[in-house]
Design brief:
alpha+beta, ten-stranded mixed β-sheet, 449 residues, 29% strand
């Protein structure tokens, strides 16, 4: 995404001083999230929109909130089922950005829509791109937080949303707004991803745990990385993680390092991704250029969000020890469970490929069609020639080409009869973007649909 970093963000520092000088904002909580409670109290309730024929349609929307007419964009899955509760993601734009650019992906196109997550979602998620006042998120008189509340209420009254699967994300000023949401709505949003953020939109409350991922350039010339570390450390403390100073890449290395904090309260991980680069949400390893089509951030954030399973308690458990190693490989943390066992071996797999130029993503749904529970699994398949996995989510993948084995993570190793788990990966290709022709679960061939 060709972002005009210098011209767009010169005013951010001034905005930071203005907002920081104004002190902590008394943000409203029209969703009733002011009473502290653990996410374990959150139940995957069916919103009032479940079972209804929706009146909302994908596209531009307006709403009156805090006495103002505000705009936002909604994207509903193409195959929307009003009896299925969906994951929901708010994606906030940057200073002088727009909801339309977030929705379209800007110059990078659909591969970068909603910071690249829409393509990875494969019609599994409802997306919302709000429009800030004056193209920013000053949150004056709580208006941006109330705007978020009111849009969420409207959507959930009309569409079927999983109340334990709400997420927020954004870059720069949008990251600041996502941080404000984490502070003020800890029992509403399950997790947030903050790209190159700082405390510019306030932090009302900010004492409760929220799963948190921070991404920041080590030599960010607009919002210094120290500002991002401050946001991260608040949730290191709130989430009960073991404090540490994560290793970060050296300047000139053109790499990124991802650290999974240890000791965190179960279900409240903190992840820190530092990269050798400036102020951008789409860094590329090995290059000083930025590209939404080639960045590693999309897959990492998608992996972070989709690790959380729908249910009555947070999951997964935190990893046993700190991880501070380069994350360009498709392996992920937490570690996969031990050797597969259990289950009758009957399975069904559906795979969907979204391809562009020299890249693709593949979303794989694995269904246990047997009569007994699968406890620990590995899925084997052969990639077409020329395809190489560069990143993945909800499984570890080895090797990266040829005959690949995807193994479960610690939080999704159990597949009950009739249940489905979703995994996926991003890959490069040399012209053949086809999907595998055969899959086997724990050595047993699966039906392909």
């Amino acid at each position: 995404m060709k972002l005009r970093q210098r011209s767009i963000f010169t005013a951010v520092a001034a905005a930071a001083l203005l907002v920081l000088a104004s002190g902590r904002m008394a943000l409203s909580d029209s969703l009733g999230a002011t009473t502290p409670s653990s996410a374990s109290a959150a139940v995957a309730a069916a919103t009032s929109g479940c079972g209804k024929t929706p009146t909302l349609r994908s596209g531009a929307q307006t709403i009156t909130t805090s006495g103002k007419n505000r705009s936002w964009i909604l994207r509903i899955p193409d195959n929307y089922d009003n009896n299925r509760p969906y994951r929901l993601i708010f994606a906030y734009h940057w200073l002088n950005g727009t909801a339309q650019i977030v929705d379209s992906g800007g110059s990078d196109g659909s591969v970068w829509a909603y910071y690249g997550l829409k393509q990875l979602s494969n019609n599994s998620t409802i997306f919302i791109a709000p429009q800030g006042i004056n193209n920013g998120w000053g949150n004056s008189n709580n208006e941006d937080l109330t705007f978020t509340d009111d849009v969420l209420r409207l959507v959930e009254n009309d569409l079927c949303v999983d109340t334990t699967q709400r997420f927020a994300m954004g870059w720069s000023y949008g990251g600041a707004m996502s941080f404000a949401v984490a502070c003020a709505r800890p029992t509403v949003f399950r997790a947030v991803a903050v790209y190159s953020g700082a405390q510019l939109s306030g932090c009302n409350g900010g004492t409760q745990p929220v799963a948190y991922m921070g991404i920041h350039g080590t030599h960010d010339s607009v919002l210094n990385i120290s500002l991002g570390r401050q946001l991260r450390d608040r949730f290191v403390s709130n989430n009960g993680c073991t404090p540490t100073n994560p290793r970060e890449p050296s300047q000139g290395s053109l790499t990124h390092i991802i650290t999974n904090y240890s000791g965190c309260r179960a279900g409240y991980p903190v992840v820190w991704a530092a990269f050798d680069g400036d102020h951008t949400p789409s860094p590329n390893d090995g290059s000083t250029s930025t590209s939404g089509a080639r960045t590693w951030t999309s897959a990492e954030v998608w992996k972070f969000f989709t690790q959380f399973q729908s249910g009555t308690s947070p999951s997964p458990s935190p990893s046993a020890s700190p991880s501070a190693s380069p994350s360009a490989s498709p392996s992920a943390s937490p570690s996969p469970s031990a050797s597969p066992s259990g289950g009758s071996g009957a399975c069904r797999v559906s795979a969907t490929v979204n391809a562009w130029n020299e890249g693709l993503t593949e979303q794989i749904a694995i269904t246990n069609t047997g009569s007994s529970t699968v406890n620990g699994w590995s899925l084997t398949f052969t990639l077409p020639g020329g395809q190489t996995i560069t990143n993945g989510w909800n499984a570890t993948y080895s090797p990266s080409s040829g005959q690949v084995t995807a193994r479960n993570m610690s939080y999704n190793g159990t597949i009950a009869p009739g249940s489905t788990t979703e995994i996926g990966f991003q890959a490069t290709h040399t012209g053949n973007a086809a999907k595998p022709t055969a899959f086997a679960l724990n050595g047993n061939p699966c039906t392909i649909v």
